[in-house]
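User: I'm writing a short report section on ligand binding and want a predicted complex to refer to. Could you take this sequence and pyridoxal-5'-phosphate and write out the structure as C-alpha cells? A short remark afterwards would be nice.
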Amino acid sequence: MSEQIQQRYAGAVMNTFGPPALALVRGQGAHVWDADGKEYVDLLGGIAVNALGHAHPALVDAVTTQLQTLGHVSNFFATEPQVALAEELVGLLGWGDEARVFFSNSGAEANEAALKLTRRTGRTRVVAAEGSFHGRTMGALSLTSKAAYREPFAPLPGEVAFVPYDDVAALDSAVDDTVAAIVLEPIQGEAGVVVPSADYLAAAQRIAHDHGALLWLDEVQTGIARTGAWFAHQLLDGVQPDVITLAKGLGGGIPIGATVARGKAATLLQPGNHGTTFGGNPVASAAALAVLRTIEAEGLLTATLERGDQLAALLAKQTGVLEVTGSGLMRGAELDGPYAAQAVASGRDAGFILNATGPSRLRFVPPLVLTSDDLDALDEALPTILDTARAAAQETTP
Ligand SMILES: *Cc1c(COP(=O)(O)O)cnc(C)c1O
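Assistant: Sure. The C-alpha cells for the complex follow:
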C-alpha cells in the first residue's frame, strides 16, 4: 500500500520535497500509522505543528462545530472566533490594548506581513542572522540565510544584511539609523535547535531601540508552548519584541499564521496595505482557540517542560550524542559523526519518526501530548537505532 501511494505521488505531485519516506494514513496522540499498518511514535509532529498530537477530540470538535456553523467568510466581515483568537494571543503575550494581530495561513505569510510592516517605517533595511530560516516565499526567503535556498531565486527583494547568530558585536556594527528591523528566531529551529546566549535577545532589543528599529522575533517554530513557555522570548527576562510571527503549532495542524505587533508597529499596516482571502478564517481561528484552550486545560506547558527534560536526559546519555540543545519539546542532538540521515532511516525501521536538520544533527519537536511511555520506548530503542545508523554510514563511506 505504502509503495503504491509513493509511486502515484511520484507521478502526480511536483518533486519539491524529494521522494516521501512513508505514506501515512492515520494518527492518534503522538502516534501515526502508515499505509501498511505499521505504527510509529511521532517525534517530529508535522514539524512542530501537531501541538495536541493527532486527532485530539478538542480540535476535531472545534473544527467540526465551526464548519457546521460558519466555515468561511471574506475578511470584509468580522467573525467572533477570529476576534477571540486575536484577544487571546495578545493576552498571552501580555501586550494589552496597544497590540494588534494580522492573520494569514502559514509561517512564510506571517513573515511576509511583518516584512511589509517594516517597510511602512519609512526604512527599507533589515538585519537577519546567519543560519536563519523564515520561509520560502520571496520576501521570507530574502531573510533566510541558506545559500542553497536563496541562490536559485536571485534576485531576492529587500536589502537584508546577515550577521552571525548570537554575536552581539556583529549586530551592533550592522545596525544603524537606516535599519527598519532586526529579525531573529529566539531559538533557531531549522538550523538544528541553536540556542543563543541568555543575554543575546535583550542586547538585540537594546540595539534595535537605540536606532529606532523594530525587534521582530520569528516564533513560528518556538511559539505556542513548544519550549515550555507560551512564547520562547518569555523564557528571558525583559525581552519584549515589537513584532512576533507565529504559525506551526498555532492551529495544531489547521493552517494559520499570525503577525502580532505592539506599540507604533501595531498601526503601520493601514487599510489597503495588506490582505488575505483565507487568513484567520473562522475554522482556522476556532482550531487555534481550541489549541490554546487545550494547552491551558491539560496543563501542557508543565507537561512540555517535564517531557522535555526527560527527552533531553535520555538523549544526553546516549553513546554518540555529543550535545543536547533546546528547551521544552524543542531539542537538538549533535551526533559524533555524519549519520543523522541513517538514524532517521533506522529510527523509521524501529517505529520512530525522527528528523535530521544536518548531517550530524537530529531535531525533536514532537506533539506536546507525548507521553512518558513514548519516551521510555525511545529510550529503549535509541541505542540500537544509533548503532545501526553508524554502521550504515560506515558502509557507504569507505
Ligand atoms: C517553518 C518556519 C517558517 C515557515 O513556515 P511555513 O508555514 O512553512 O511557511 C518560518 N519561520 C520559522 C522559524 C520556521 O520554523
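A remark for your report: The first helix runs from residue 2 to 12. DSSP finds 13 helices and 15 strands in the chain.
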